[in-house]
Write a structure and sequence with these properties.
It contains 18 helices and 21 strands. By secondary structure, the chain is α/β, with parallel strands linked by helices. An eight-stranded mixed sheet has the order 1-2-12-11-8-3-4-5, with helices on both faces. The longest helix is centred in the middle third of the chain and has 15 residues. It is globular and about 65 Å long. The protein starts with a strand and ends in a 16-residue tail after the last strand.
Length: 446
């Protein structure tokens, strides 16, 4: 097995990450298992307690394969093994969901993964958290390039702190808040308190989703997350993978400290999860998969497509299975969806609300302007073709389309429309003009 070593130049003195696979490759299960076994064998884990921080079901990831490989490498070596589901502020997973997600029969965790405990990140319960430090306002200002100046209490799930080692296991994709997901993001916001979630997400909103999404390297939000992660007293490691969107296939896996493993995987993700078009499209029909069960999560089907929509164009989120805007954040229905300037130009009205909610609002509404004379003017129209009642959708400042009226084949035949299946993980961008080889239309983007 050939293992490459990569170095994250943004992490001073960081150890190199080990990387297998790459763009266009598909890792065999045995190759992955051997990689995990060899990497973990080289770590001082005997007698240690280990907390595995893993994603919920809103990410494409062959988690049973990864988890079984890690468990096989650690069983009998470690004193305690706990799986912590990094919900962020998503809904908790029940036993049936956990069993399907982690790869064991319902009620049979101990038969498949003996000695392992599984817990949800119970972000709604104050006792979940412990404070590990603060980021001073002056440092937040420095990291954000002056966009924010606010002291942040760094709280995270006490299970991380109460284990000797925290091992992140999860995928890397282009991301609307941080540039590319994964790595330390599984701590913040994955298992973090509201304070750093609000500040980091609002910082991303100020930069704007279309500007930051798919940006390699240490973005201002990534810098804030890394600053907080450095305060975690447990030893941090990461197994970062690049998964084929919508499938269980893996293109690559990287292991090391979170900063380096993430950087190595992000480089592969940038070549795997980005499609380029030669010209903007007037309309996108974004087909939302079942793993997104409310608009809070399904909004990724907008984030990843906004960059290729022409001014005055439209993104339709087609998701007949969705019945709620947000199960866990109903306040978004009162706030509604608005561009960034709508909030910043009326900050006294909104500054006391959860900044994470405001950030979600701006990310889904996209680019736009606001002033008292002209009101709000957004660059594109966002339309929901879902099971959410029309009055709720329009009250949230979004367009409504009866999903029964959506003919996917007819949309696909329209030369002005881009139909995107399994939307939410692959980023679409316009190809820089110098690289263009003509204007073949939306259906022929790479």
């Amino acid at each position: 097995m050939t293992t490459r070593l990569t170095q994250n130049s943004d992490t001073s003195g960081a150890r190199s990450a080990a990387l297998i696979g790459g763009p266009g490759e598909v890792l065999a299960e045995e190759r992955l298992a051997r990689f995990v076994r060899e990497r973990l064998a080289g770590e001082d884990l005997d007698g240690r307690s280990v907390c595995l921080v893993v994603p919920d079901a809103t990410r494409s990831c062959p988690l049973p394969l990864l988890l079984s490989s890690v468990h096989a490498a650690l069983e009998g070596r470690v004193s305690r093994l706990t799986v912590l589901i990094a919900l962020g502020t998503h809904a908790p997973m029940g036993e049936r969901e956990l069993a399907a997600h982690l790869g064991y029969p319902e009620g049979g965790l101990d038969r498949v993964y003996p000695g392992m405990t599984v817990i949800n990140h119970r972000w709604w319960e104050p006792d979940t958290f412990v404070s590990v430090g603060t980021v001073p306002a002056s440092r937040v200002a420095e990291l954000s390039g002056g966009l924010l100046r606010r002291r942040v209490d760094v709280r995270l799930n006490r299970a991380v702190v109460e284990h000797d080692v925290a091992l992140v296991v999860g995928p890397v994709f282009p991301h609307e808040v941080v540039g590319f997901s994964g790595g330390n993001k599984y701590f913040f916001p994955g298992v973090a308190g509201a304070e750093i979630i609000d500040v980091s997400h609002w910082l991303g909103a100020l930069i704007t989703s279309s500007e930051i999404i798919g940006t390699l390297g240490v973005t201002p939000v990534r810098a804030l997350i890394d600053e907080a992660a450095a305060m975690v007293p447990s030893r941090r490691l990461a197994l970062c993978v690049v998964a084929a969107s919508g499938s269980g296939a893996l293109h690559a896996a990287a292991f090391g400290i979170p900063e380096s493993a993430w950087a190595a995987a992000a480089e592969v993700s940038a070549e795997t999860h980005v499609r380029h078009l030669d010209a903007p499209v007037r309309r996108v029909l974004s087909l939302i998969p079942a793993k997104y069960d409310d608009i809070w999560t399904a909004a990724k089907g907008f984030y990843k497509l906004e960059p290729v929509v022409a001014d005055g164009g439209e993104v339709i989120l087609y998701a007949p299975h969705i019945r709620r805007i947000s199960e866990m954040h109903p306040e978004i229905e009162q706030v509604g969806y608005h561009c960034r300037d709508y909030f910043t130009r009326q900050w006294d009205r909104f500054k006391d609300l959860h900044w994470g909610v405001l950030a979600h609002s701006t990310h889904l509404r996209g680019a736009g302007t606001y002033d008292e004379e002209h009101g709000e003017r957004c660059r594109v129209t966002v339309t929901l073709a879902t099971g959410i009642p029309e009055d709720v959708v329009r009250a949230a400042n979004l367009g409504h389309l009866d999903p029964a009226e959506v003919d996917v084949e007819a949309f696909a035949a329209d030369p002005d429309t881009l139909v995107v299946p399994e939307a939410g993980e692959v980023l679409y961008r316009l190809r820089p003009p110098a690289q263009g080889g003509g204007r073949p239309g939306p259906g022929r983007g790479r």
